[in-house]
Amino acid sequence: MVDFELTEEQRMIRETVEGFAREEIRPAARPADESGVVPAQLVEKIWQLGLVTSAIPEQFGGGGDERSALTGAVVAEELGYGDASIAVHALAPRLFAYPILEMGSDAQRSLYLKQFASERFVPATAALMEPRFDFDLTELSTRARRDGSAYILNGSKCFVPLADSAKSLLVYAATDSSAGFKGVDAFIVSPDASGVSIGEREKNMGFKPLCTCAVTLNDVRVDRAARLGGDGEINFSRLMSEARVAISALGVGMARAAFEYARDYARERRAFGVPIATKQAVAFMLADMAIEIDAARLLVWEAAWRLDRGEDSLKESYLAKNYVAASVLKVADNAVQVLGGHGYIREHPVEMWLRNARGLAALDGIATV
Amino acid sequence: MKILVPVKRVPDPATTIRVLPDGSGIATDNVKWVINPFDEIAIEEALRIKEKQGGEVVLVAVGQQTWQEQLRTGLAMGADRAILVRSEAALDTLAIARLLAKIAEEQKPDIIILGKQAIDDDSNQVGQMLAEMLGWPQATFASKVEFQDRKCTVVREVDGGLETVAFDLPAIVTTDLRLNEPRYASLPGIMKARKKELKEIPADSLGVDLTPKLKIKKLDPPPKRQAGRKVASVEELVQVLHNEAKVI
């Protein structure tokens, strides 16, 4: 049966995170955009909400709550509504923790998940994107070659969030370049390992407070026990679907922020004696933005719903991500347009949201939270 | 220490309130409901006391079934259990205080902490009435609460300064704005809240006289703010402030 009703817990989570986003994250967004730094105190405060620890099993000190892609989408939308850069920074540890939670071997789970049951923020991340014009998830150029009981990793990664501070890194690499998704594996790598070099911080158009770096792997030797899942197989396609659902939900929140700001502005701003929201040229634009956001959310929720049922969501999550990427850009651009000249100056947040929207639309890498 | 925290459901302070055309109340469609912010401070204080010296935090509300939402939020923040005294009719402050006194007699808390007032009707009466009914000491408008054994010291915000009072437990404390900054419920807290006890008791089963002594006759929205006007010179400004605004 199709059902669009959130559970009581999901509604409460949405209200809590929405309130937090409005009161704590949004006021910090512009200063963070200007300074290029996400305030550490705010990161700790977000961590206290238990967004990462909630799903860690109780035996490892976490909340032991059932993980749900739909609940995750609800949370990501609200955080994105607050600020996308701060959201990605705060959720980056999931890039490392969740694949281990879902597909790690028992040894990996007990070794690494405990770290995340901490009172303090635990910086961790994953390296997926590669600096190639023909970057293709099914044909990673980062390779892992088996060498006895070890693997040797070689390749270049880019847009790795929190690469400068992460204590743990999950590196995606091809073990069999002819096998598509099935030939991709992930390896737990210490950023201090020999052969790993973290590049300079990248200078990006949007997501300015979010530190991303290139990571180069030069004959990095890891034990075969560092392969995600040990000797078992991992479902790379599912990990990517989960990531796409999360980043798409973030985009829905970004679009909602821009839409609401433009809508409220249009109700206040008067031209020719009436609020501009009553002019059709503006009203139609606002209506289109609202439609985009609701349509995008439904695509995201469907993809999340399939994941929660344990079904394949490759197509649905991909459609959602693509739709969100286009609509968040359109909505943010329209928001700037509704504000007119005011939208172009930095006193209003819409120009910042447009830059962030461009980032979300362009990247599948930061995009893989 | 066993701490009882009475909680009221009020419209979100961020909501724009519209008075019904007949003045009988406010329009409740599209209103988001929250825990009264002063009560939220009371819950936070209770949780901090519990974290420091152990004990139990019990929430109590008097209202309709929908009030469960606010009690669940309080449980998600960390309270241990909640009691909802069900009343479909709106009650006045005296009836609420009587019901709470009854609950307090049953639950035997060491201390009752509640907001100094609710942000909807700003009555600022329930804590004081409750203290009188129970014959307990009261410290209203608390900005600091400290304990030593069975003694409590409270710093109160009074006109033009602070007043420090000390008294024995059991007692009533009502919270002011600067007492603390309430925490947000965490995800694990929200998930656990569902499993915590939330007991409902019909208000008329407590043997309390609920007849209202007070009737709200009419609500008026605040007058619309007039547009400002520009003056040409400082002289004119002074004239206007003196003759029209009569502030200098």
Could you walk me through the main structural features you see in this protein, from its secondary elements to its overall organization?
The complex is a heterodimer of chains A (369) and B (248). Chain A is an alpha+beta fold. Chain A has 3 domains: 8-121, Butyryl-Coa Dehydrogenase, subunit A, domain 1, CATH 1.10.540.10; 125-226, Beta Barrel (Butyryl-CoA Dehydrogenase, subunit A, domain 2); 236-360, Up-down Bundle (Butyryl-CoA Dehydrogenase, subunit A, domain 3), CATH 1.20.140.10. Chain A has 10 helices and 9 strands. In chain A, strands 2-3-7-6 form a 4-stranded antiparallel sheet, covered by helices on one side. A 3-stranded mixed sheet of chain A has the order 1-4-5. In chain A, a hairpin with a 2-residue loop joins strand 8 and strand 9 (274-275). The longest helix of chain A has 33 residues, at 236-268. Chain A is globular. Mean pLDDT of chain A is 92; it is low at 365-369. Chain B is α/β, with parallel strands linked by helices. Chain B has one domain (2-217): 3-Layer(aba) Sandwich (Rossmann fold), CATH 3.40.50.620. Helices cover 27% and strands 27% of the residues of chain B. In chain B, the strands form 2 sheets. In chain B, strands 9-8-7-10-6-1-4-5-11 form a 9-stranded mixed sheet, sandwiched between helices. In chain B, strands 2-3 form a two-stranded antiparallel ribbon. At the A-B interface, helix 1 of A face helix 2 and helix 5 of B.
How many helices of chain B? 6
Q: What summary fits the major beta sheet of chain B?
A: 9 strands, mixed
Mean pLDDT of chain B: 93
Arithmetic mean pLDDT of chain A: 92
Physical arrangement of strands within the biggest beta sheet of chain A:
2-3-7-6
Give the CATH topology of the largest domain in chain A.
Butyryl-CoA Dehydrogenase, subunit A, domain 3
CATH class of the largest domain in chain A: Mainly Alpha
Shape field of chain A: globular
**Helix proportion of chain A:** 40-55%
Residue fraction in strands of chain B: 25-35%
Query: Oligomeric status of the shown chains?
Result: heterodimer
Total domains of chain B, how many?
A: 1
Largest sheet composition of chain A: 4 strands, antiparallel
Given as residue ranges, the uncertain stretches of chain A (5+ residues, pLDDT < 50) are: 365-369
Distance between the termini of chain B: 54 Å
The termini of chain A sit apart by 30 Å
